[in-house]
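> forwarded from #structure-qc
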């Protein structure tokens, strides 16, 4: 395939590629694999860490770089010679934000240093949600003011619901020079904090340059505010049917929801992949 026809396809995971059951639907999987067979480049761009996204990477049979932590880690899972970028939050800034969280009496704080996890207070629901079987030895539980000694890749804050807007405004007012912060809505309200200038579009730009794919040939799918920069940067930004209003406003296209094969339907049509008779929507 000529470089002028080849596309870079960036897939967010939760609420986008994955159904509510955290599965890749058979139809969407088949379309993605057909796109790969046609010569297109498929990458995962997620807020998740490597440890909880690598299984989907393997399921799709990818051999490409991956964007984790919303761009704070850009790496190639199977090529240690690839020029990886890790952009953690300075520990000093992290400690000031942790103190702010204590002042707001948040429910909990969760820090990650690549695949190592630090949880301020024990919580079975957080541990169960953020870990895979066999990962629990990667968790250190205890006050982050004491336990966090290295620069964290990200901080995840579980605030009291009535404090979300106030806390985000405070982060913007007091820490905007050093951090980016975004809100997740699944499965409960989470504020994610990463280093200033870190977002998924940084990863897409690096990967597109590596594969010599022009910006207008980047197709990106997303649903939440951590996808805003990526959808805006991509030449073909696609909002899922279940996406937040802000994302739909800036997207070039809107597809059906993550429950209705939104990615598979769009790619099959846009890249003319339905010609392959083995693709049967289930």
């Amino acid at each position: 395939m000529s470089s002028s026809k080849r596309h870079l396809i960036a897939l967010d995971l939760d609420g986008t590629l994955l159904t509510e059951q955290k599965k890749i639907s058979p139809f969407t999987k088949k379309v993605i694999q057909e796109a790969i067979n046609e010569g297109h480049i498929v990458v995962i761009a997620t807020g998740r860490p490597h440890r909880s996204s690598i299984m989907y990477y393997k399921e799709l049979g990818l051999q490409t770089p991956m964007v984790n932590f919303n761009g704070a880690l850009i790496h190639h899972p199977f090529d240690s010679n690839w020029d990886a970028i890790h952009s953690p939050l300075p520990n000093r800034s992290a400690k000031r934000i942790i103190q702010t969280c204590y002042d707001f009496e948040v429910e909990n704080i969760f820090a990650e240093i690549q695949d190592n996890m630090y949880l301020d207070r024990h919580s079975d629901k957080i541990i169960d949600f953020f870990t895979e079987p066999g990962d629990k030895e990667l968790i250190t539980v205890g006050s982050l003011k004491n336990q966090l000694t290295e620069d964290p890749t990200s901080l995840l804050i579980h605030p009291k619901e009535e404090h979300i807007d106030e806390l985000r405004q405070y982060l913007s007012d007091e820490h905007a020079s050093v951090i980016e912060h975004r809100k997740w809505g699944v499965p409960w309200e989470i504020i994610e904090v990463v280093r200033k200038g870190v977002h998924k579009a940084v990863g897409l730009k690096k990967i597109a340059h590596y594969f010599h794919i022009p910006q207008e040939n980047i197709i990106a799918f997303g649903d939440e505010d951590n996808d805003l920069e990526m959808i805006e940067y991509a030449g073909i930004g696609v909002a899922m049917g279940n996406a937040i209003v802000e994302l739909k406003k800036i997207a070039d296209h809107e597809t059906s929801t993550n429950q209705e094969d939104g990615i598979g339907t769009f790619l099959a049509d846009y890249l003319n992949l339905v010609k392959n008779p083995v693709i049967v929507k289930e």
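QC bot note: The mean pLDDT is 91. DSSP finds eleven helices and 14 strands in the chain.
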